[in-house]
Amino acid sequence: xxxxxxxxxxxxxxxxxxxxxxxxxxxxxxxxxxxxxxxxxxxxxxxxxxxxxxxxxxxxxxxxxxxxxxxxxxxxxxxxxxxxxxxxxxxxxxxxxxxxxxxxxxxxxxxxxxxxxxxxxxxxxxxxxxxxxxxxxxxxxxxxxxxxxxxxxxxxxxxxxxxxxxxxxxxxxxxxxxxxxxxxxxxxxxxxxxxxxxxxxxxxxxxxxxxxxxxxxxxxxxxxxxxxxxxxxxxxxxxxxxxxxxxxxxxxxxxxxxxxxxxxxxxxxxxxxxxxxxxxxxxxxxxxxxxxxxxxxxxxxxxxxxxxxxxxxxxxxxxxxxxxxxxxxxxxxxxxxxxxxxxxxxxxxxxxxxxxxxxxxxxxxxxxxxxxxxxxxxxxxxxxxxxxxxxxxxxxxxxxxxxxxxxxxxxxxxxxxxxxxxxxxxxxxxxxxxxxxxxxxxxxxxxxxxxxxxxxxxxxxxxxxxxxxxxxxxxxxxxxxxxxxxxxxxxxxxxxxxxxxxxxxxxxxxxxxxxxxxxxxxxxxxxxxxxxxxxxxxxxxxxxxxxxxxxxxxxxxxxxxxxxxxxxxxxxxxxxxxxxxxxxxxxxxxxxxxxxxxxxxx
Length: 602
Hints:
The protein is α/β, with parallel strands linked by helices. It has 23 helices and 23 strands. Helix content is 41%, strand content 19%.
């Protein structure tokens, strides 16, 4: 960890007693850093024979050097600092970027002792190495992590860089992030362009072409500082409500990069009336906005929640139809856990390209199972990483789109009633890439069939009897299963896999599976594989009237075998998903009860 990052951590520790909220800590450190750096830049300009640009004239009495005067007490230092902040915010001769940073501060340190400790550490940080400072500020912004109540989650740096590398931003392209947060995508794009062999004129134009919008003033300030510390001298970040304000509607961009907020408030978003789609959901509106604001040759990458691809509500279907008909060229599935510890939400990256779209009838798809970090809350580095392989495949596809194992036709999606995307377990016929070794189910587990029993002879009052479907009757015969996942064998429906809690009797219409020892598979992981691949298992049935499971096909089912540590993390993710589903089911049942009550006639 760099020395600057250590100092930033020290500043946080000093502030935590007065500002327990991480967002407030970031605000105070941002103010202090920029105050100090303005003084540093003045001194550097003087050393080169130039003039001061900031603390001059009426502002000179508020400079960092004045605060630092040994004659000043801690209270004096704090007083000069507070007055300086107000003076800078109102000084018209200072660039708007700096005035904005020092304007409308919610709160400022008011304890002289705390401020003095804060000041001493800040004084040790210099503006000399902007790259170190940029990294330190990025580290600082990580502590805000997410604005969970707004559905905003910080995009991991390696995912940002991965997306930017795939899109290959160019010097003269107008680039936008319409929900920029701390400007991670914009900075990555800027650094990518500057790393190429471009002319001086192109370098000058790069920062002029980078734009960001955000609705939150605190995020605006953070992004301005973040970009400035990464040498973007003229950051164009606007406080702008992309969904409700149409004043920038006629601005179009060559490249749009975004991880928009997923959150929709009670009652829905109230958008302006220029959207092509009618919706009150934030993720739909943001995706639609991006699709509509690309130039004829424009490209985009958007991180979206899974509902965008699979939900059957009218507005989701309308969005998918517009994407398939206008711009969508690819989808990358991110592993559930990329945004941990903030959320376990499942996400995808949509790739839009208005020009390439006209040249191909294919949409590429790649499933990332590992991104180089564990999928638990700690997100520790691991060896498994699909990003390099994905990058190579997608880059080749974008240059030469063709039908292969990583593509699907637009026609195949369009012929579906709800324009659903046949990805992963949503369609068992779609090919999925995996870095994990696989083996047949028959090699990894034993098949345990149920025992024949008849309702006529064995009805009782003790244990539920399960087989190919839900419990069919109750028996007094001794139970033969407890807390197991049951798979239908005879006379099964599409719901052919179910988790049964407690003790029960399994008849010969159903089966359970038990993993073999020393095969590297955890029983609970195998159970979840069965539950979440139910559609695939149902596809193994035969018969017209009565559907029975083809055991040969079932036994040949290929099971991926991740490392046991990954299996354990996946199990935790599955459990979280179950809790989410239980909560939704409770809401649905309540709504059904409410509707029944309303419709009841007495």
